[in-house]
Automatic annotation (TrEMBL), chains A, B:
The keyword Transferase does not apply. The keyword Protein transport does not apply. GO terms for biological process: proteolysis. GO terms for molecular function: metal ion binding; peptidase activity. Residues 192-350 form the Peptidase M20 dimerisation domain. This is Dipeptidase. It holds the Pfam family Peptidase_M20. It comes from the Bacteria.
């Protein structure tokens, strides 16, 4: 079944007016002062879905409620669960907003408001897409909505919620629209996220701080030792030296590398955007490959000795660093943490003792680019944008994806309607009107295409 | 002229009673609450010297006064200036003192009191030595006393004072007794101190903190870069890699190395005392050689990124470290600072910019062990201890010595009466009665021997 072109059937004024109503609710999940507003936004979404003929509930959690809704049309049809969040980032710094964050305003084709792109605008595009389809008749697939109110504070209630509602939340695919397309003219499907292993290295030298005059040259210096350890974790080619680190890495395929090489990326623009003159990194890989497809090791924090003004001639008793490793599909966070815990003592210089503390990890996740769902998404995007989607990955670790993958075992489909220039989390967050409307159309076509696959 | 054995002529009870009077004055220079007491201690010393027939003044400085006294007996005789300080460290932690810090108490042959060894006891031994000689007749040399009240706070008034009184303070040798003998049975003459070059390294990566998921692997990480730089500053043999760093080092002579090797030093005891299991350092040199006779490089502080609890996945925009290099005779602090300022940018990895800020430096100083003054000191010590002195150096940088050397151009003779076990700066500071009395005898013999040389 295909409805054909729905574009002419979309009431854009109405779609925008409804979104504006949602954007006006200051559902800042991080700020207790807005707790009632967060709930009000959840209830607003629930009521909307109920009005569309869904069975819709507001499920309590220890903090902000989850909107759960479903419309099950036919057990023999695929089931699609749409994830999103109705909470938003705080507005700070308030003085940098050109128009108030909770009074949505259109300028130059863009809707300015906190949450316009992240994620009210994108989540509501998916809701409106379903509604658009419903105008044509019954839905071609079973649809569940799972719209939470804690995403901007790390979704603390999500794992227990998923565990408690495991059976109810079964689906063939989970759709998430909460990010950015690669570029304006490039519809994008994200099929992988990196994982994470995060440790803290502690180095102990003498049993007390020592005077660097009386002891310098003879006593072990834990800061020098820590630097030596960290320097040894990578070689001259930017490769991580931990034995076994790369053993389980699923190599990038030629197709993936070709696909990414064809994307409109400029190293010069990338360098300009962060103000650097060179991009060190693992030799033999492009910038996109390094971010999306290769594991990395970054020190996220370091400390030891005297950090104040002026000079102090002390040899510190101890020093420490926080070190995170982004992992790629195939790698296992627990195993990688174990490997670095075994390796650091081996490369520590004589005279110091070391400890490597496990902070937390996250599974890398990758979905097959030739899955039925991804192919369906590509067809849907093609109908809107007139071209095939770029298949991208993301360098970050998205805990909700690992949770969906681990607890529900469900494939996740990222179909993003936003752009980096929307400035989510920043002042003057915005969402192009065109992207919002295209999102609605994409959502409708996606369900159709999923119904056809 | 030699007086022969003065031991029987020393009134020990009287000498101890006078020292106790001085020790009872809480002349804590760091604490404004004791400012009047500091002055009282200075005045006490001045009055004592005046009573001994010296022209004695209390010279004002912006903070605590200097005691200056002189007894010029014959322009054709050598002039000896005795330096010391009448101020003391704070008593903290007060609760750890077994007897009150400003109520001198004798236990097991030791005088317990703040300042007992550092430096009231040692400085007053020199005063009493002069008085002992005066009992026998006129002094064999011209004697000047320069006893300050700011040593424990870094002698802020000393350089201006020396500059203002340059002509008056001329001497053939300056005697300082403000440290420790190498070991109980080892009279010690210290003939060299290390210098210092202290810099701060700043590393800048991107123009803002970045998310390690979105940028990790591609963006430069200034903390990793800083660690790499620091690790590269030394090679596998513990040698500093800065080109030209060792060029001006005056090598240790075979005599020096033999002399130090003969001293009662145990690496195992040294390791036990600081709680480490190995002593890394420059290969090919003993522990004493590393501390006294070789330049070193120690990171004294490091910082960057997230230092709080838990984990944060940030790539910091900047990182920094404080790095000090102890220098040995021949090396010049300004030159060394310039060398590291040139070298760090060369070894910095691509993608970061670095800056090396000059904090301050200090000249290394070494005096000839065959100088007339040192030979005289050795003869004096031999008369007291029945054996030759050990010729040691110290790993620290003593600014006053560099100031004497640079401003007055005068040789400095360290003849220490204390021991490490006296615990200067710690609770329950003490000074062995025997060491105090031997100090008085040494001081008297030293002036005789200097008069004979």
């Amino acid at each position: 079944m295909t409805t054909g072109d729905l574009s002419s059937k979309l009431n854009r004024d109405q779609a925008q007016a409804e979104l504006f109503d949602l954007l006006r609710i200051p559902s800042v999940s991080a700020d207790p002062a807005y707790r009632a507003d967060v709930r009000r936004a959840g209830e607003w979404v629930r009521a909307k879905l109920e009005g569309m003929g869904f069975t819709a509930r507001l499920d309590e959690t220890p903090l902000h409620p989850v909107v759960y809704a479903e419309r099950l049309v036919d057990p023999s049809k695929p089931t699609v669960m749409i994830y999103g969040h109705y909470d938003v980032q705080p507005e700070a710094p308030a003085e940098e907003w050109k128009t108030p964050p909770f009074e949505p305003t259109v300028r130059d084709g863009r809707i300015y408001a906190r949450g316009s792109t992240d994620d009210k605008g994108q989540a509501y595009a998916n809701i409106k897409g379903v509604e658009l389809l419903l105008q044509e008749g019954e839905l071609p697939v079973n649809v569940k909505f799972f719209i939470e109110g804690e995403e901007e504070i790390g979704s603390p209630s999500i794992v227990p919620y998923l565990q408690a509602h495991k059976d109810e939340l079964t689906a063939d695919v989970i759709v998430i629209s909460d990010g950015s397309r690669f570029a304006k003219d490039v519809p994008t499907i994200t099929y992988g996220v990196r994982g994470l292993s995060y440790v803290e290295i502690h180095v102990q030298g003498a049993n007390r701080d020592l005077h660097s005059g009386s002891y310098g040259g003879a006593a072990p210096n834990p800061i020098n030792a820590l630097c030596e350890i960290i320097a040894k974790l990578k070689d001259d080619q930017g490769r991580i030296t931990i034995p076994g680190f790369y053993d389980d890495v699923i190599p990038l395929t030629d197709d993936e590398r070709k696909m990414w090489a064809s994307l409109p990326h400029s190293d010069q623009d990338f360098m300009n955007s962060i103000g650097v003159k060179a991009l060190p990194g693992e030799e033999g890989f492009s910038t996109l490959e390094r971010i999306w497809g290769r594991p990395t090791l970054d020190v996220n924090g370091i400390w030891g000795g005297y950090q104040g003004e002026g000079s102090k001639t002390v040899i510190a008793a101890k020093a420490g660093a926080k070190v995170s490793m982004r992992l790629v599909p195939g790698q296992n966070p627990e195993k990688i943490t174990k490997l670095i815990q075994e390796y650091v003592p081996q490369i520590a210089p004589a005279g110091v003792s070391v400890e490597v503390i496990d902070h937390h990890g996250g599974q890398p996740v990758k979905f097959a680019t030739d899955s039925q769902a991804i192919q369906a998404a590509n067809r849907a995007l093609h109908r809107v944008y007139g071209r095939d989607a770029a298949f991208a990955r993301t360098g970050g670790s998205i805990p909700i994806v690992a949770a969906f993958s681990e607890i529900l075992g469900t494939e996740v489909l990222f179909v993003d309607y936003g752009l980096n220039e929307d400035a989510p989390h920043s002042p003057n967050e915005s969402f192009a009107q065109e992207d919002y409307f295209n999102g609605i159309l994409t959502a409708a076509y996606l369900l159709e295409e999923l119904g056809n696959s």
